[in-house]
Every structure is written in C-alpha cells, then in structure tokens.
Amino acid sequence: MSIRALIPAFILSLSALSVCAPAFAQDSPEKAKAVRDEDGKYFDADGNPTYKIENGTVDWYTFSGYRRYHSDCHVCHGQDGTGSSYAPALVNSLKTMDYGTFLSIVAEGRKNVGGGKENVMPAFGDNKNVYCYMDDIYIYLRARADGAAPRGRPPKHEDKSQAAKDAEASCMGS
C-alpha cells in the first residue's frame, strides 16, 4: 500500500487524537529535548519529532524543514515563520499547538471566521512537496518557536541519512 493511500486514515486518527487530548504548551526547549534518535530523526519524551542543534549544526530534518517551509509556506506565513498581514506567525502558533493538530491543519486546512475577517489555510494533503515533509516542517518550526534555530538558512547541518532518503523516495514515488 502506498503512503499516499495511508495519509487520509493517518490524518483522521490524528484529528481524533487532537480532539481527545488537550493541546500542550510547548513552553521550553526542555520539553522539545531530543531523547531518542532513529536513523538521524530525533524524538522528544512524548514521541513527537523534534530538533537537535549542537554547536550551530542542525539535524537533517530541521534543515529539510527550513527548505520545505521556504518553498511552500513562507508565501503566507512569512520568512522564518514570523507571520505576515496575510497569515499568523507560526513561531507563535507552535508554542501552543500540539503535533497532531499541526498535521491535521496542514493536511486538511482550516477556516477561521470572526470579527469581520475570514482566514483560510488551504489543505496541503495532496501536495507531495508538503505532505512528504510535514514532520520536517514541524521540526523546523518547533526549533524556531523554541528560539533554538535563528532566522535564516542554517549554516551547518548533519548529512541526510539513508532512512531519510528512503522515506523521501517512497513518498515522492521515485
């Protein structure tokens, strides 16, 4: 079964999870601390993907997230997640948004209406350049929200692991 076929069920399960579980405040870099490494991808104590930055070198997924964010997301959400007059600053949103909610909003989109204003986040669940890299984008924005990653292109990054290469090839269909 292809990854593309699994995404709707995965997103549906995450949506249910985010409704049942309260959102957590990502209140400090300590909460996001990497405690587990799976082939170059880091996870926090709750099992959520996270960043690892040491001596100015970011992990591959943070770097990939920077690249993917700036290929699709920055048009609305601003350079480095700082927001614009069109869409909110994701460096602020990720301080209170849990992983499941992030995935659900990116995949399914969201519409906010109120105060005479309508904001629409389009669904990116069919855009391979986004859905194949949702974890990467989340990791990058999480690092930005925690203040661990400065603005701009990370100057140094870890090499891309074979696991990352394999996941990309599988998702992108190459």
From TrEMBL:
Keyword Nuclease listed: no
Instruction: List keywords of the entry alphabetically.
Output: Heme, Iron, Metal-binding, Signal
Leader sequence range is 1-25
Q: Which Gene3D superfamilies match?
A: Cytochrome c-like domain (1.10.760.10)
**Pfam families assigned to the protein according to its UniProt record, in alphabetical order:** Cytochrome_CBB3
Record flagged with keyword Ion transport: no
Q: Where is this region: Disordered?
A: 149-174
Stored InterPro entries? C-typ_cyt_methanol_metab-rel (IPR022411), Cyt_c-like_dom (IPR009056), Cyt_c-like_dom_sf (IPR036909)
Basic and acidic residues: which segments have biased composition?
Answer: 155-168
Q: Which residues form the Cytochrome c domain?
A: 64-127
NCBIfam families found in the cross-reference section = 4cys_cytochr
What is this protein identified as?
C-type cytochrome, methanol metabolism-related
